[in-house]
Specification:
This protein has 470 residues and is an alpha+beta fold. It has a domain of 253 residues: Periplasmic binding protein-like II (D-Maltodextrin-Binding Protein, domain 2, 3-Layer(aba) Sandwich). The protein is built from 19 helices and 14 strands. The strands form 4 sheets. Strands 1-3-2-4-14-5 form a 6-stranded mixed beta sheet. It has a 4-stranded mixed beta sheet with strand order 9-12-8-13. Strands 6-7 form a two-stranded antiparallel sheet. A hairpin with a 4-residue loop joins strand 10 and strand 11.
Length: 470
Amino acid sequence: MTRGFSHGRWTRRQLLGGLTMMAVPLVAACGGGVPAPSAAPTPSAGAAAGGAPAGPAAQQTSPALNAPAAAKPATSPGGKTLSLVWSGWILDQNPVIRDLAQDYAKETGVTIALSTAPDDVQQKLLLEAQQGKSTWGGWEGHTAFVDTAKLAEGNALAAWDPYVTEADRTDFLPTSWEEQKYKGKVYSIPYRVSPLVMMYRPSLLEKLGYKEFPDTWEKLYELGDRAVKELSQPGKKMNGIVFISTAWYCLWTVMATLTPKPFDDAQGLANMDIPEAIEAMNVVKRLYSFSSPDILSTDIANITQAGLSVVHMQHLLQLQRMKPALQGDLKLARLPKSAKAQGTTYWSSGPNILKHYGQDDEVARFWLWLSKQKRLYDTLWLKNGSPPNRRSLWKQYEANKGKELDAGMWDVDDMQSKSQGIPIALSIPIQATQTKRVTEELLLGKIDTPEKAIAEIKRATAEDIAKQKK
């Protein structure tokens, strides 16, 4: 994974005309990569967008996709075969999927062939869509707001709407369901709850005299300043917080704590015209004052795992990844609240149906079946830290609350239920790129005020979108 977000500049005419674009390495669930969406894999800087278990040293992107590798199909006595492709971290970290595929074959007579996505999977999907064909029936393991618009505009995806019952739809977190829509249609179902959260060192809060995590930004500023002053040692600075400058890990996330509607769904952009945009940039600048300049160039998980930060703001998946290095001294908390909002950013990744495979109903049936299997989340959640989205599955883990599962998981789930999803749009990756650039320029003193920073995001985003439309 690479730190930061990059994208090729495409015009809409090129996209619709059939030229293909390489995928951004972000894994859904935001979190994903084997290296670290996840002290374990720690993100290298980017993800989706998330990454996904966001991967390796890249902090906000998903793990790098492995080379094409077809797994041995789950065999059935006879009948149909479905070929499905997965981002590598999912199969690598959750081998139970292969066992579940075998179970499905026995139950239904439908053989499931599992493949690891090649690096150029999106290019392949778009090229095949032009030819009216698809090697695979479905894809799981990417970030909706980063990838779905390109794939839907390229005619590669089938909508989920005809295959989901009302009972299924209402079993998913409502905000996540809305998040999966593009132009009114749902193109993936949300497998995971995946918010941006606060992680903190309980032992260090105790040293500072805190009995609970701060619930406002002002209280967090006090904690951060005290951490630097009281816990630093000669040659070993303690940081109050570490965070990633990528838009969906930083500015947009802070905006969601200040307003219930940080995004303009009609425009497909974070709303830079509201006063909370400038306020959020002020918050980010204040957080940086008791952070480390290394956060702009280093995997922040390395800083936290070295014991050099009291608070870590990142994707939920990082909790499980970093705990071992800290001997379990890491807990989960929701983001600070404000008078108007108590939200966050999130991406509830899940599987797509690939339009030209010709077995949409069978593909949808398997994905829905898999989303209900507790055995899947016994590894995906209990071991890897990625909770289910289905409400019915959450109820089955009540006995694990405060034991194998941090009780804060329930609090951040509530936080996501009060949050607006990042819109799926061709324009949102463009804005994300400019937002990261400008945020870092502000933090480094190249732009002197938050007001000028927000104005520059607006200017540069509008310019790039205009070029895209030519």
